[in-house]
Amino acid sequence: MKTIQILGTGCAKCNRLAAAADAAARQIGIEYRLEKITDIRRFPEFGVMLTPALAVDGKLLISGKVPSQDELKRMLT
Number of folded domains in the chain? Predict the structure, then answer.
């Protein structure tokens, strides 16, 4: 099971990334858990300088933008 982590303060872009990642994971049929990390003190653990950010199993994959569904699917496979 993968842990998909969305790092952000809860802004509109952060919520959009969470919804998009959830949809992409469901579309490709992976087993996953979605975790939203809103505590900015934890962001440096992942190397996040800009939000929203996406990490999978603790590894930062993208920061500062909301990728397309196709990009998200590639990242999650």
Answer: 1
Pair 6, 54: CB distance under 8 Å: yes
Longest dimension (CA), the chain: 32
- Which ranges of the chain does DSSP label H, i.e. alpha helix? 12-28, 43-46, 69-76
Q: What is the mean pLDDT of each run of 10 residues along the chain (77 residues)?
A: 96 96 97 97 95 97 96 95
- Active-site residues, by number, are 11, 14
Q: Which domain holds residue 20?
A: 2-76
What does the alpha-carbon distance between residue 58 and residue 54 come to, in Å, rounded to a whole number? 9
Query: What CATH number is attached to the domain comprising 19?
Result: 3.40.30.10
Q: What is the pTM of this model?
A: 0.93
How confident is the model at residue 63, as a pLDDT? Answer: 97
